[in-house]
Amino acid sequence: MSTHTDIVAALQARWPEHRIGRSLERIRALTELLGEPQRSFPVIQITGTNGKGSTALMVEGLLRALGLRVGRLSSPHLVDVTERIAIDGQPIDADAFDALVADVLPLVEMVDAREIDGIAMTFFEVMTGLAYEAFAQAPVDVAVVEVGLGGSWDATSVADAQVAVICPVDVDHSHLLGDTPAEIAQEKAGIIKPGGIAVSADQRPDVAAVLTARAAEVGVRLLAEGRDFALLERTAAVGGQVLRIDAADGPVGDLFLPLFGAHMAANAALAVAAVEAFLGGRALAPDVLAEGLASVSAPARLEVVRRSPTVVLDTAHNPHGVAATLDAVQEAFGFAPLVAVMGVMADKDAEGMLALLEEHAQTIVCTQASSTSRGLSADDLAELAAERFGADRVHTRAALPDALELAVSLADEAGAGAGVLILGSVIVAGEARAMLVTERPSVDAGDDGDDGDPADDDEDDERDGEDVAWGR
C-alpha cells in the first residue's frame, strides 16, 4: 500500500509549478469528469505579485467570523502539500488527502491519456482539481482561491470568480509573465470575468490602467483602493498593529491585526473590501471585522521562530516583497545589528534583493535549499553578495542547518539588540520552518499564536531557543 509520502512524491513527479503549460484544457477536462465541482460554491479568487497568501487568510478569517464554512486553496506549501487545501481553517488531513487522490487519480490518468498539447496534467493542475473536489464534498459555503501564477491561464481560473481580488502587481516570473508591471497585469487581469466584481489594491498607474480596461471590457465594476476603500491609519501594538479602515459603511477603528508591517495593514483593508464585495456591498459589522482580523495567523511571514536571539522567518522572494519585509522588521523589531540568512531560486532577482538587504543587514549568511535543484548555489549567491556587502560581511554555508547555527552565533556575539532574519525563498522558508517549528503549520484563522507574535502569510508558532532542534 502506498504511503502518504509515496503519494505526494508521485504527484510532485509531474511537471512542477515553475514549468507552465499555458492552457486550461487539461484542468477543464478533469473538472468535467468530476462533474464541475468548482461550480458548486462561489469563489473569491486572488492574484497579484505579493500578498496573495496573507490576503487570502484574512478573507478566510472574515468569512469564518460570519459563520460561513470556507475552503481555501493556497500555494506553495511550506512543509506538506496538504497545507494547500484547507477547510474550516485547517489543512486537509493526510489520510483524507490520500483517499481523495485515490478517488481522483483514475480521472487524472484519463486526461493524461488524451495528451492535450502533448502534456500530462501538471502538479498544480492536479492539486487544483483535488481542492475543488474536496470543497464540493465538504461542502463549503465559499472558496478562497489563491492564483498560482499569472491569472488568465492559471488552473484556478477554471472557476469563474464572483470576486476577483488583485494584490499589488510588480515584476516577478518575468520569463513567463512579461518584463514590465503592465505586461504582467495583462495576465493577472484575466481573473476578472463577466458577472463578477473586481477589487484592487493600490497599483502603479500603468497597472491600474490595465485593470480598468479589463473591467470595462467585461462589464465588471472595479473597486479601487483609495477611491472605494482605504487603510486610514495604523498604529504599532504588541504582537501586531491596530488599524482604522474605511469600509462600506465608513471608517471603522480599533481593529487589531496580529501581523506586522504596512503591507499587511494594506492587505487587511483589501480583504475587508473583498468580503464586503462578496456580500453585495453590505458592510461587515464592526464586531465581525474585529473578530475576523484578530483571528488571523500566518506561518513564515515575519514569524518569530526562536528567542534569545530572536529569529524571524519570512517568505519574501523578490525585491518588492523584500522591501516590504525589511520595513516591517525595522518597525517591529529594530534589530541592531541584523544578521540575514538568505537562499534564493536561480530564476529570481537575487541582485535586486541583495541591494535592498545591504542597507539593513550588517552580515549575510548565504545558503541554499536542499530539496530542489532550482536554487542558486550558496557560493554563487555569496559571490553576488560580496559585490554589495564586501567580502568581510559575507559568510557561506551551503547546508541550511549550518547557516542557521552560524547566524545565531553571530547574533549572540553581537549582543542583546541583534536579531536574525531568514528570507529569499518560499522553499528555504519551508525547510527552515521544518527545522525550527515542531508543529505542522496550522492555518486556522481562529488560532492565535503562542504569544501573539505573528508571521506574515500563513501562521504563528514559536519555541524558545533552548528547545530548538536544528535538524540535519
From TrEMBL:
Biased composition regions of type Acidic residues, renumbered to the chain: 445-472
UniProt keywords, alphabetically: ATP-binding, Ligase, Magnesium, Metal-binding, Nucleotide-binding
Residue span of region Disordered: 439-472
Endpoints of the signal sequence: none
Keyword Metal-binding on entry: yes
Enzyme Commission numbers on file: 6.3.2.17
EC class: ligase
Start and end residues of each Mur ligase C-terminal domain: 301-425
Highest taxon above the source species: Bacteria
Catalytic activity: (6S)-5,6,7,8-tetrahydrofolyl-(gamma-L-Glu)(n) + L-glutamate + ATP = (6S)-5,6,7,8-tetrahydrofolyl-(gamma-L-Glu)(n+1) + ADP + phosphate + H(+)
Pfam families registered for this protein in UniProt: Mur_ligase_C
Matches recorded under PANTHER family: DIHYDROFOLATE SYNTHETASE-RELATED, FOLYLPOLYGLUTAMATE SYNTHASE-RELATED
UniProt family annotation: Belongs to the folylpolyglutamate synthase family.
Protein name (record): tetrahydrofolate synthase
Organism: Propioniciclava soli
Lineage: Bacteria, Bacillati, Actinomycetota, Actinomycetes, Propionibacteriales
